[in-house]
Amino acid sequence: MSGLMDAVRAGRTAETVALLDGMTDAERRAEFPALKELRKELRAARWGAESRRAYPALHAAGAACQTGAAGVATWIAAADMRWPGAAPAVFLHLLGDRDPAWLADVVHRLAQRPASSGVRFELMAGLVRLAGCPVPTSDAYVRGWAQHMAGLWQRGGHLTDRLRGEPQLRELVRALFATDDIGAVLGWGSEEGPHSWHGALALLTADGRLDRAETVDACVARLLRGGSTGDHRAFLRVLKALELTREEERARVADWVAMASDAASPVAAHAQALLGALALDGVLPHRSLAQLSAAVLFRPERKLVRTQLVLLGKVLGRDAGAADVLLPAVAEAFGHEDADVQERALKLVERHLKKLRSAGARASVVAAAEQLGPALRARATGSLGAAPLDASALVHEEVLPPVPRPARLAPAPSSAAELAEEVGAALAAESDCATFERTLDGLVRHAFRDAAALREALEPVVARRWWAETEEHAAGRVESRFHRHYRGLVGTSDALDLLLVALHEKVSVTRLHCATQAEVPRRLCGHGTLSHAFDSRMWEVAYRIRTQPLPFLLATPTWSTGLLEPGELVTRLEEYGRLGARVAAADFAQALLRVRREDRAAAEAAARRAAALGTAEGARLARWLTGERPGTPVVRRTTSGPAILTELGELLELQQDFPPAFRALGRPVSASQEGRDCYHWYDSLKAQWPAVLPERRELVAVRMLRDLSHLALHDVRGMSHVLPLLAESGGEAGETTHLAVAYGLGARHPEDRLAAVDALLVLAARGQLDAPRLGADLGQLIRRGAVKPLRLVDSLRTAAATGAHTTVWNLLGHTLPVLLADLATDGPAAPVRGLGELLAVAAECAERSGARGELPHLAGAAERRGSSRVVTEARRLRGALTAGLAA
Q: What pLDDT, on the 0 to 100 scale, is given for residue 547?
């Protein structure tokens, strides 16, 4: 071994550098193969003490012993040596004597790598300095430069002073405005003036180091392009700091209009303020103001809409001649989803209607009144001369989605090649129940027919899997990963990997057998029973693949919801008997839980066929199909902070004649179980859990309720995909299912609220929605702070927009009394935030559905003093309920 390799292995970086300095280029190149072998050796135990000791010296030596710019850049940016790597000063010393053009090539290759590759900015900047080349303007370089500049505060001085010393300031600032997601760096610190990025850029523009027109144009273009919230905030601060003159504002009217129409709310508000000032100064043409209003008045932000209506009112008050152009634009707001906006627009039109001179403008305003809600439409009939509502239009027809029909699972792929393609797709992305079960059944069938042919077809798929390594340590890694203890499988791809590992004999039969015999711990998190039932079937299938392959699976569902037709299960048992195949216990248990029992005639017919089989499984199936189905166990409500949760009592039916992993499904469920060593942070398998008990959705919902509460309580994203699955499942839609939907309707993220709305409408379409229960639950959750009213408003507006006005009113008819009772009790105290918006949705739905009657505590809110949103909408709702207005 050479002296260089000894120094590298020992991690003596200084000695390594000294040895490299004394070598010729040819001698360095001769050392490179040994360095590559050492890297390969260390990669097997990357985090071991030997590797961590050697990596800095290896990192430096490998870069110095290559002559190709591409190879050097790849070596420096390698992920396996990123930490702990060599210091930038070491690379600059070793590479500093190379040709400047070669150095420029290296630095530009490094700069083109993503910022996540971790190439140090100090290294790139040093190479630029040595090469004397133009500065790279890639994302990684610009981001590194900005972070470097912001981080030099420890050396004293202002950010402005540091930027003044940058020789390529204009090029880098130009690139800064074009870099995505840079707002977090530009927003560093809270200082103003020369300590902040926006202050520094404004000062550098003022003293001429940055071209003002170019900087303003770049800032405006960046805001028009959009991006993250941090980018909006950062570049808007820059724009404000530049303090545009009135001439500069006039020159960019088209840009402000585009921002006000489509940009993020803070940017749109700023553009709206600029345009408002120009309009009041008489600089903005009325036609341009009308075009702007047509876009802004349909934005969802009520503050922007109200500000625009106020601006239009001021312009109309100053210039009567503007009515023919502006009032038709105001009338377009008659179609806004918010009834408050409609009413404000109607008031504005009524105030200035006499100023209209054009018959066409008047006709346009009157025609637009057809978009108003029933109450405002009746008012517009008298004030604007709009046509009265047709009596036939006053009859409300509730629109609900068609009842979802489950899809029948297609047969498993007939050829091994086709199956291999589907396995590859299923491994690349987590699968739904139908896709996963079909793929699973295909693997079992083909492993039974010809395991060797299946392995051959799977070669291209398996070659990319982590467990297909050829090194000696690979077997140990597989055994370690697929060691079944209290932590189970974490995704459908993980489950498929387990079967493939068994098929390719990468895990021992002993390990698989031990996993099938593992006991279910008594102390489990709330999800544990569902995951253990799923896992036990996967381990059993993997074990049988190695020992006694199954011809096919008994529990493969007939339908996408997880239900299995009883006649189909009997046919499968008949085929097992013909083949002499031994039934797998967990697979048969899952089949029993999936078999459809609600159709008593079909169940009894299948039971007679099953009993005639003369097997233990046939007799067990016959008893299961004809036995009395118990109801849901005793449900008890409990609270945990602001959350409302449920607990279930024992279910003896599931604790008899089932394997241990499935008997656990009948254990009592306590809310305190949820925090017990839970590892189910990965949610892909949760989409499989409703199919474990497809006719007992309450048993699934109670085990997932705490997770679903986190959608509203802790702003968790993504869990709501199970809500439509629960809504489409069978069995009672009880207290827990409705609480789950309530949390989804109050979720933080719009996509989660949309999934909850889907679940709500599916339950309503199936006649399973208990609106009084769900409405009362929502009221209590709002009172406890678990659900924010404005999020619920968004969900209910979405549901009402589909035509489900009666459904939404029936909910709010039980939510609002809870909140209005608090308002009546507290007297003059401020109402819960968002109550006015909830009342507005209720009023619109009551008007359109023709609801009548009294709402408890509504009169007290309507008779309060003032003209707040709560009082205004309470009066409107009371009017709709007492006047009997219909849609």
A: 96
133: alpha, beta or left? (left if phi > 0; alpha if psi -120 to 50): beta
The helix (H) or strand (E) run that includes residue 426 is helix 416-428
Distance CA 95, CA 103 (A): 8
Average pLDDT of the chain, as a whole number: 88
CB 9 within 8 A of CB 49: no
The candidate with the shortest Cα–Cα distance to 397, out of 810, 797, 848, is 848
pLDDT band at 392 (very low <50, low <70, confident <90, very high): low
- Judge contact between 706 and 719, C-beta under 8 A: no
3-class DSSP state of 570: helix
d(CA 197, CA 769): 54
Q: Are 121 and 147 contacting, i.e. CB atoms less than 8 angstroms apart?
A: yes
Residue among 369, 393, 391 at smallest CA distance from 380: 369
643-648 and 635-640 strand pairing: antiparallel
Q: Which residues contact 811 (CB under 8 A, 6 or more apart)?
A: 771, 774, 775, 778, 796
Q: How far from 119 is each of 93, 105, 113, 130, 140, CA to CA, in Å? A: 17, 15, 8, 17, 8
**What is the three-class DSSP state of 657?**
coil
Cα 463 versus chain centre, distance: 31
| Residue 85, Ramachandran bin (φ over 0: left; ψ between -120 and 50: alpha; else beta) | beta
Could you read off the pLDDT of 463-483 as tens digits, one per residue? 888 787 644 444 555 666 665
Residue 174 · residue 211 · CB < 8 Å: no
CA pair distance 765, 769, nearest whole angstrom:
8
* SS3 category, 317: helix
Q: What residue spans define the domains of the chain?
A: 1-136, 416-626, 673-883
Helix (H) or strand (E) holding 801: helix 789-801
The Cα 726–Cα 702 span in angstroms is: 11
Length reported for the chain: 887
**Element of type H or E holding 436:** helix 433-457
pLDDT above 70 as % of the chain: 92
Rg (CA), the chain: 35
Distance CA 420, CA 427 (A): 10
Looking up tokens 């010296």 gives 57
Q: Which amino acid is at 71?
A: G
CB 793 within 8 A of CB 841: yes
Asked whether the beta carbons of 36 and 5 are under 8 A apart, the reply is: no
Q: How does residue 384 score in pLDDT terms, banded at 50, 70 and 90?
A: confident
Phi, psi of 110 (to 5 degrees): -65, -40
In sequence order, the 6+-apart residues with CB closer than 8 A to the CB of 713 are 641, 642, 643, 743, 786
Q: In whole angstroms, how far apart are CA 872 and each of 336, 810, 863, 868?
A: 18, 21, 10, 6
Task: Tell me the CA distances in angstroms from 488 to 482, 485, 498, one per residue in order.
Answer: 9, 7, 11
Q: Give me the DSSP letters along 56-125.
A: HHHHHHHHHT---HHHHHHHHT-GGGSTT---HHHHHHHHTTS-HHHHHHHHHHHHTS-GGG---HHHHH
Q: Is the pLDDT of residue 395 over 70?
A: no
Q: How many CB atoms lie within 10 A of CB 339?
A: 20
Residues 6+ apart with CB under 8 A from 609: 567, 570
The residue type found at 108 is H
Average pLDDT over residues 677-681: 60
